[in-house]
Design goal:
about 25% helix, binds 2-acetamido-2-deoxy-beta-D-glucopyranose, signal, alpha+beta
């Protein structure tokens, strides 16, 4: 389920035509039961990533926007099985290039 959600989010980025580098190091953070994934979006500032994610969340009935901040978006995702997971999108602008470091964390409720 988390992977499917992740795939949807990466699709948003592909939709935007940006290059993605997904890192695997931060997967399965041991201190929590959250599943996290790091994505580097090159050539697009975090402000635009933020707007794109919010637009997609609002367009999809299975997602509910919980909190919206410049560097953090929280949403609830309800799967087809009626299971809800919390999703965090944390954005950190990259300093050297025009880009955005996006961390996605999923936690089943
Ligand atoms: C999101 O899920 C949490 C936990 O299940 C719930 O407390 C909260 O009301 C939900 N928020 C929205 C906007 O659906
Ligand atoms: C989302 O971020 C909030 C605030 O930093 C944190 O309390 C919460 O545990 C995070 N949830 C997930 C699913 O990572």
């Amino acid at each position: 389920m988390a992977m499917r959600t992740f795939a949807v989010v990466v699709l948003f980025a592909v939709f935007l035509g940006v290059r993605i580098i997904a890192g695997g190091k931060e997967d399965n953070v041991p201190t929590t039961n959250a599943y996290c994934k790091i994505v580097w979006l090159l050539g697009i500032p975090c402000e635009q990533v933020n707007v794109a994610i919010v637009t997609q969340i609002k367009a999809m009935a299975s997602y509910k926007l919980v909190l919206l901040a410049p560097k953090l978006i929280q949403a609830n995702h309800t799967s087809g099985f009626g299971q809800t997971e919390r999703v965090n999108f944390t954005m950190i602008p990259t300093s050297m290039i025009l880009g955005c470091h996006l961390q996605l964390c999923f936690k089943l409720k």
